[in-house]
Amino acid sequence: MTQKTPSDSVPSGSSYRPYYSYAPEMKPIENVSRNAAASAPVTPAAPAAPNAQAARPAPRPAPRAAQQPPAPPAKKSNKGFWTVAALVLILVVFVSAIYIAADGSSGSISSGNKVAVIHISGPMYTGELPYGSGYAGSDSIAAHIRAAVDNSSVKAIVLRIDSPGGTGSCSQEINAEIERAQSSGKPVVTSMGDQATSAAYYVASQTDYIYATPSTITGSIGVYTVHYDKSAAYDEAGIDVTMIKSGEMKDTGADFRPMTAAEEKYLQSVIDDMFRIFVKDVAEGRNMSYEEVLSLADGRYYTGNAAKENGLIDDFGNLYAATDKAAELAGLNSYTLYYPDNLTLSSLLF
């Protein structure tokens, strides 16, 4: 937004008007002549000479033209801008129509063999989260996997993961769709980006093959929760809290008081239960023993190098190594890539 400078503003009540000015009032010259004639002494007029021409009055000077105000500057037309905007919109609609007709495939428009690439990017939570928001919602990811399974032209799926993790429930909802894909005969391969840790590794561990780079950060097998004791801040602010509850543990984790020893023990049991599920599922997904995974599951991160040495990933490679592997597992000689979660005009509008 453009701001006016002090010189652009006009104080209330000012006689100044932008683009306009006024000439000082001028008295007609004839009035001055009449007044001068009225004040002069009267003398008798001399007799007119015979055949003498009547004296003509001296011509009056032409009045000065009033100064014309300068014309305001012409406004710039926005016609060119709107023309360009309309052309760009038409182009976007045209390209989107081609993309939709191609069903999101790269390469030629074909209903033949496809490998679907589905992204899991950002912190992971259950529910529906807007595309491009920086978070990964289990509803949309599961829907993309399910749609790829139900699409007869899709023969395999690659999960492109770049996430620090999230909730266990989000992982388990996505894992259910991975299992459904595998049961339908469609292999699922993981391609890790910069990181795939904690809940993101939980998802990767359930796929048929995992690619990463030597510098990818992965692992971090573990579960945690946090309790904030803000009772001192409540006391300082003079806030008294009265809790009315149905059971002893109903307000476990409340921040207006310290946690009791019994509550801490109870929360630890919840974390331990979730941890056992995590380790068991990773062991089954990676064809490792529970003890092998447990020895690696103290919460630490692993580089891609260390992860490969410990059996947490299968090989080094980028996205295209992963799509080639997915095609190989599906028995495809050729394929096109299909991106069901690509940003389109329709996803922006609807």
From TrEMBL:
CDD domains: S49_Sppa_N_C. This is Peptidase S49 domain-containing protein. Residues 34-77 are annotated as: Disordered. InterPro entries: ClpP/crotonase-like_dom_sf, Pept_S49_SppA, Peptidase_S49, S49_SppA_C. One of its GO terms (molecular function) is serine-type peptidase activity. It comes from Methanimicrococcus stummii. Belongs to the peptidase S49 family. One of its GO terms (biological process) is proteolysis. Residues 181-332 form the Peptidase S49 domain. It comes from the Archaea. The chain crosses the membrane at residues 81-102. The lineage of its organism: Archaea, Methanobacteriati, Methanobacteriota, Stenosarchaea group, Methanomicrobia. It holds the Pfam family Peptidase_S49.
